[in-house]
Amino acid sequence: MSKVIKLCDIVKVYHTGTFDFTALHEVTLCVEQLEYVAIMGASGSGKSTLMNIMGCLDHFSSGSYMLDGEDVSSMTDDEQAGIRNKKIGFVFQAFNLLPKLTSLANVELPLVYA
Question: In the Cβ-directed half-sphere of 20, how many Cα atoms lie within 13 Å?
Fold first, then answer.
């Protein structure tokens, strides 16, 4: 099977004034085609940060990320938006649904933008 997601030594550092906070420290993860993975940990352990990086919603400070054989770090913001549109799906904890739309219309909405 092929590796769909390959993270190598991912580091994410937030810079706030004179203080640097390392949210992720050298995270390595491989997810193969048809594999299911659960990311679990205590509150504040970096799960959401990692998911945002994997979903091309946030940039990492160092390391490498290959998604379906493509180097995500070398992609422009528009190319990453294309990846989110075609290859990555998210179900957020708060769902982020539009309340005036039906469930079906909410699911169909990304297809309109495609």
Answer: 7
Which among 61, 52, 58 is positioned nearest to 90, based on CA atoms?
Answer: 52
> Tens digits of per-residue pLDDT, 18-45?
999 999 999 999 999 999 888 999 999 9
Q: Is the pLDDT of residue 87 over 80?
A: yes
Q: Which stretches of 17-114 are assigned E, i.e. beta strand?
A: 19-32, 62-67, 70-71
From the CB of residue 60, how many other CB atoms can be counted at a distance below 10 Å?
A: 23
Element (H, E) at 15: strand 3-16
pTM score of the predicted model: 0.80
